[in-house]
Amino acid sequence: MPDSNFAERSEEQVSGAKVIAQALKTQDVEYVFGIVGIPVTEIAIAAQQLGIKYIGMRNEQAACYAASAIGYLTGRPGVCLVVSGPGLIHALGGMANANVNCWPLLVIGGSPERNQETMGAFQEFPQVEACRLYTKFSARPSSIEAVPFVIEKAVRSSIYGRPGACYVDIPADFVNLQVNVSSIKHVERCMSPPISMAETSAVCTAASVIKNAKQPLLIIGKGAAYAHAEESIQKLVEQYKLPFLPTPMGKGVVPDNHPYCVGAARSRALQFADVIVLFGARLNWILHFGLPPRYQPDVKFIQVDICAEELGNNVKPAVTLLGDINAVTKQELASRESLPMNYYTVFYHVQEQLPRDCFVVSEGANTMDIGRTVLQNYLPRHRLDAGTFGTMGVGLGFAIAAAMVAKDRSPGQRVICVEGDSAFGFSGMEVETICRYNLPIILLVVNNNGIYQGFDTDTWKEMLKFQDAASVVPPMCLLPNSHYEQVMTAFRGKGYFVQTPEELQKSLRQSLADTAKPSLINIMIEPQATRKTQPFWWMYSCINPMNISSVQQNG
Ligand code: ADP
Ligand code: MG
After folding, report:
1. Whole-angstrom Cα distance, residue 504 to residue 311?
2. 79 - beta bridge partners?
3. With contact defined as beta carbons under 8 Å apart, do 423 and 396 qualify?
4. 322 in contact with ligand 1, CB cutoff 6 A
5. For ligand 1, is residue 136 a contact (CB within 6 Å)?
6. What are phi and psi of 433, to 5 degrees?
7. What is d(CA 449, CA 455) in angstroms, rounded to the nearest whole number?
């Protein structure tokens, strides 16, 4: 009997037991485990009549273990139905076990009639209070009409956030009470848990910590199994070539016979890893608390968990990724795919650190056009670029002028000069001037190996195999992988060569902090990167390479 039928027969009466069973059915409860007796027998019968499977057990503890395993296996809670007092107390063990395992579970306990409360009723016990220690949510509905709401809330609490156990107390007088069908409001099935994702910057940082690891190790816990993250984690293992270690119930997320499984060398794997990624596993006794001597004292933990309070337990993690394991793994995979960086990634990270009062000098094709859309100016006369005449080569001269003015009139102000690699070439030797006068300039060379677009080293080598450069190298190409930062170090300024968002963030932070020396950050980007497709033709500026495709065809 679906609850929509209730409304159509408004004078009709319905028993409390049926209302409870219907609420469970609406929440997609498939299995009830329990032992019947006063006052819950009618609930079990009503549930069965609605097509819910009822499994009668011999002890409430086992019933509760069974119901909690349903939650782990299906992602929706199984129900454990128990009688008052001792019945409920027997179930506490199962509740505690589910809660500690982070598994969803709904326990429904009968309790004495409300009008006998505090009188020494049959099997009277403070059940809601007793369950509080073992659950995320423990409550008694205020009336039978409130049951659908409270059951929805209990089911929702059991699966949202960190999964766990919930308790709903049903006084005996609710069970046989007859209420008007029309007085029961329909409460919808609670939706599957919302998917949360980690912070983008943390995802980038994690990717580069993993990339720079010498002995990385992935630990796959039962949280990963619960999250159904098998497909994405296996992809991550294979793309990053990550050795992995499953915890006891994390086994099988990636098959035990996978070549990267180091289960057989567990102790050594833990002991020698320099970076450990925890996918849904807590650093508790099972993992030796993450502490020496079982681990390197300086091992970097990257923690992925849906529960914020778990992050940082027992160790100080290098990176924390708060979110659903499956979603975060996909984020990691996507961030890896987005290396080398493109213009938008670069400017996003530059904008994040740009001082509000700095001068922005810029020239180049894509570098200047795309940079202008992302980099913000807050003050007048603080942006200098290729200007009316579209002149390339003005950048360093402008930057030097801005730095002189800044030095004399507003000390402490910085000049950020954002150059394409081609534009930089027009006046690169002015770096010596910058260093000679020790000017507060940070040069960013956005390097795509060319004018408009370039090629990567492999394509370059391929081209030169058969003919000489002048015959085959497309006119817009510059020497790939050029270390322009060495122009700066040649004159004792600071030079950085960066390939990842994390390296970019770090070098920019250092350059801004270092007021004693000018610096140049050579930022390698995808040689074929361009701007986002523009919706209207006029959004491409006149110096943009509309004709680049014909150049490529010729080349
Ligand atoms: P194991 O016993 O396998 O080491 P634990 O039970 O210690 O695993 O850890 C499981 C972790 O997984 C818990 O901290 C829990 O919060 C987390 N978790 C559960 N579901 C998810 C999910 N969908 N996304 C991220 N973390 C999750
Ligand atoms: Mg270029």
Report:
1. 26
2. 32, 106
3. no
4. no
5. no
6. -60, -45
7. 6
Helix (H/G/I), strand (E/B), else coil: 164: coil
Distance (angstroms) between ligand 1 centre and the Cα of 89 equals 27
- Ligand 1: centre distance to CA 487 (Å): 50
pLDDT of residue 403: 97
Return the C-alpha torsion angle 199, 200, 203, 204, nearest 10.
Answer: -140
Q: What is the pLDDT of residue 8?
A: 56
- The per-residue pLDDT for range 451-499, each reduced to its tens digit, is 988 888 888 888 888 888 898 888 999 999 999 999 999 999 999 999 9
Any atom of ligand 1 within 6 Å of the Cβ of 290: no
Which pTM was predicted? 0.70
- Tens of pLDDT, residue by residue over 394-414, are 999 999 999 999 999 999 999
The 10 Å Cβ neighbour count of residue 355 is: 12
Q: What is the pLDDT of residues 149-167, one digit of tens each?
A: 999 999 999 999 999 999 9
Which residues are registered as beta bridge partners of 445? Answer: 419, 522
Strands annotated E in 298-440: 300-305, 319-322, 359-363, 383-385, 415-420
The Cα 448–Cα 109 span in angstroms is 67
Distance CA 58, CA 294 (A): 42
Dihedral of alpha carbons 131, 137, 142, 144, sign = negative
- Rounded Cα–Cα distance for residues 34 and 63 (Å): 5
Q: Which residues fall within 8 angstroms of residue 477, CB to CB, at 6 or more apart?
A: 449, 450, 451, 454, 455, 460
CA of 275 to the centre of ligand 2 (A): 35
